[in-house]
Design goal:
Elements: H1 9-24, H2 37-88, H3 93-112, H4 116-121, H5 125-141, H6 151-160, E1 162-166, E2 171-173, E3 181-187, E4 190-196, E5 199-206, E6 211-212, H7 214-219, E7 226-229, E8 233-239, H8 240-247, H9 251-267, H10 271-287, H11 295-301, H12 304-312, H13 328-335, H14 338-346, H15 361-367, H16 371-379, H17 389-398, H18 402-410, H19 425-432, H20 435-443, H21 458-465, H22 468-480, H23 517-522, H24 549-557
Antiparallel strand pairs: 1-8, 2-7, 3-6, 3-8, 4-5, 4-7
Length: about 575
Amino acid sequence: MEDFHTESLARRYVTSIYWSITTITTIGYGDLHPVNEQEVTFCVFYLFFILGLQAYLIGNMTNLIVHGTSRTRKFRDTIQASSNFANRNQLPVRLQEQMLAHLCLKFRTDLEGLQQQETVDSLPKAIRSSIALHLFYSLVDRTYLFNGVSTDLIFQLVTEMKAEYFPPKEDIILQNEAPTDFYIIVTGAVDLITQRNGMEEIVGEAKKGDVVGEIGVLSYKPQLFTVRTSRLSQLLRLNRTSFFNLVQASVGDGAIIMNNLLKRLKEIKDPIMEEILQEAEEALSRAKTEMPLTSYHAADSGDDLLLHQLLKRGSNPNEVDAKDGKTALHIAAAKGKEHCVALLLEYGANPNQRDFEGNVPVWQAIQGKHESIVKLLMDNGAKISSGNVAQFACTAAEQNSIDMLKSIIHCGGDITLPRSNGTTALHMAVCEGNSETVKFLLDQGADIDKPDVNGWTPRGLADHQGHEKIKELFSVKQAVHTPAAFHIPQDPESKYIKFPSESNMPPRISENSCPSPVQESMFYDRPPRRRSNNYQNSLVGFMTTNNTGEVLFCLLKKLIVSIS
């Protein structure tokens, strides 16, 4: 602009703005050479755009540099702080090296994205469980400690384990520390070190798939060794509390785990292990009579795997429960546990063993309507006649179950036999007022004029209680056979009549002729029902203890008394 005084105000203003923008953007005057106002205006906006773009690029580059160095700066600060701490407290050189090695490994895993636990913890539980199963299930399944346990328990254990990395020469477990965790080695190796005469001595090495720290956790004793990594290692950590919370739900798995540990102790020829094994055997001998684990308990829980191990180790298949006289075969047959029944028969269980009430296993299977077990027992020599057949028939008649009566007949039982008080199944059917059961019993040859010890006959009971349909059935029976004389006892104190809830008795019978409810219940001397089994399906009651010290140790070890 040669003579700016002669130019218009607008042109002078645009030119000034252009000069200012070229100056602030560090573009020298003349690098862009507009020749008119339109070009000058365009250059102004263009330079504004260039200015913003440069600011954006420089800002991003600065942010990338700062972000890339922030972790390094934080790592340096952490290293400096740990060094100051170690120097201030005069820590040993070996411990300082472990601290620095751990911090360096943590920095590397964070930098390379290997700190998988933090990533996994941010995911939903189902996804976390699936990842853990994919990564570690096969490894845990091959571990000696869990050999033979259920798939469900391994699934739960894997989902509770935490994967951790450890650098070389780092202590994982210290000798004599409290047993809070045990570890499974995924990769790498560790040394087992003990202190003897003030000197460290390596007594063993553990590699991939081995377990360390489990002896202290399961026996609740201080850790026996210092466990130190010999190279970069990944380990699965399982907390003791979480472990017991899972194992307590299955007494069978708990027994198998303890048995695996005891077998390992017997295999290791080491004075320390022999001392622990001796303590375990002493605890077992003291606890043997308190809470033994027998084939009866295994059958009661339906754990055929545990039952098999117990029987292989010499457990008595015919052991009788002191409360009711039942054997494991009684329980397995009653609960429909066919695999348990087959195992017990294979190991010599008596299929004709009677309990205190005269029940035999085949009758228990009939009551539970387990036809396959009935056939299995019969094929192995079971005879229902070995039990109290008269009681079985009376029970079936009382329950109005023709199917049970047919099963008794199919197994070779005589349903017309009387009980010790003279009552028969026909007596019970008449008292229940079930004409169909009465007809079935008559077809099987039941005697309508057979008296019990008090002189009551089925026909007399039918007349006394006013069961017209049953009386008609008896009349047909009487027309075929020679009539027999019968009488109704006159003693009002008779203890054997049972009336239905809605009586059909004729009105002429006086109140004094009716037995009282107490007398009524005493008729047929019905055997008491078996009480429900309250056996705690846990690690033999460790939840009922304080979970501490020698008490827990004894309770855990006594699980194996019958299988060791």
